[in-house]
Amino acid sequence: MTGAHRPAEAGRTAGTETTGTDEMTGTGRATGAGGLPEIDVAGAARTRHPLRWVASIVLLVLAAQLVSLLVTNPNFQWDVVGRYVNAQLIGQGIATTLLLTVIAMAVGVVLGVLLAVGRLSENPVARGACGLYVWFFRGTPVLVQLVLWYNLSYLLPEISFGVPFGPEFVTADTNALITPLLAAILGLGLNEGAYMAEIIRGGLMSVDPGQSEAAAALGMSDARTFRRIVLPQAMRFIIPPTGSQVISMLKATSLVSVIALADLLYTVQSIYNRTFQTIPLLIVACVWYLVITSILYVGQSFIERHYARGATRNAPQGFWAFAALRRRRSTEVTS
Questions:
Q1: What is the reported pLDDT for 11?
Q2: Cβ density class 46-85: b for 16+ within 10 Å, e for less
């Protein structure tokens, strides 16, 4: 009796297929490895999703209507768009927009690093001052800040430099000093510094403190630990939102048109105020904004891929994969 049951037990132990009896019906059932019942996939079929087809048809119809509107509506005046899209005056506005974006982002990044370090400092005065700065500039609209800097002469007719509460060494007229370009740089750069401070602070806090402790145990200095250990890991969390901030900054430069700075939007406005061709000139501005932001997106994707090497199983999706509407497939890792 005992010996007769040993082969069956050995078969179940080795994971071979055995045949059991259903306790409810008394009929036999096939079991696989581990005694689990086998699943018959002979009649399996793919799950149908009719709503997906309905959604696709609706989207295609809407896309066809949009294309038809763009092609058949003469009010778009595509000939005017083609005439102004490469105009020299538009090019000067684009140059001003790019210059303002670069300078404002540089000011924002440098200021953001200082503010992030201050917010992580153990000095309560520095931590409180940096927190107050971030609170104010994130809590007020950037358009208000631009107008305030542009009209600073109402508050301070003259700007002087010297000893606090003491003699003044240099005095300058505020109207002559605060030009529209400088007002735009101050308004955009100081506002961007508050956002970059939170991005950088979040990236630094995302690194495990044990990394710094291990580096200190190996005898590495604080500066080398930050440069070789903390910063490369934090960059994976800093780069994506920073790239988004650059794109947002490019579009935010259009706000400087209210202070009469000749950026892309102000240049377009100055043209259609004379020709009354509002829609074609606004399309020109949209085309150039889309071109520049697409280039920035490509650069951001390459930088993200560089800092994501060896950190994630799947590299970030590139621009061309995004443009081709391709869904990223996960890679199976087998041991």
A1: 45
A2: eeeeeeeeeeeeeeeeeeeeeeeeeeeeeeeeeebbeebb
